[in-house]
Amino acid sequence: MLRPFLIALLFAVPAAAETPSPVKTAELSARLFATGVEMADPLLILSAAKLRKTLAPTATDRAATDGAPASDAPLSWEDMLAEAEALSEGDDILLGLIDDVRAETTKGVSSGPVYNIGSIPNGKTDTYPMVDFIGGEYAEVYVEAKSASDLNLTIVDAKGRLVCSDTDASHIAYCGWRPADTAGFVLKVENNGPSAASYALMTN
Prior knowledge:
Number of strands: 9
Order of helices and strands: HHHEHHEEEEEEEE
Distance between the termini: 41 Å
Strand content: 25-35%
Radius of gyration: 18 Å
Number of domains: 2
Oligomer: single chain
Strand order of the largest sheet: 1-2-9-4-7
Structural class: alpha+beta
């Protein structure tokens, strides 16, 4: 049977050659969660929850220029487990695995992503004032919405030159680049979805 194999794989995955960064882990967990919800697969959602539980995000008061306030938090591992639980009703094995993940203690990362919450109307763009990134170190920016939406992410330098963009039709967007020198960059989040969206913006 396939399910026992998947369960074994979920809890005995060998260490990767290179551990993803906290920001990349947030993106991977969101993509895995979205796929699990789409396929109504609690095991995929459970895997997403395990990934997200390793994060230790730190809230900041960073805000977009003229941006709307929001109170919604980033998608949490608790939210993910609740979704997996709803899809596992009557399956004692899966419900037991969910309880195990909920109870397990994770070390987490020593320096998790920094995040802030925003809210953006459809067809509008949130622009963030200069955010500094260290020269020579890999810089990451990630944005996700809980509800279905189409968020685009664009990064430009102090001279207005495009550095990175993610314009796929998705509720999440990710940009990564390596600045040559320590400098400030402008972050732009665009909502191309049919309705307003609350989102979390994360940086390393």
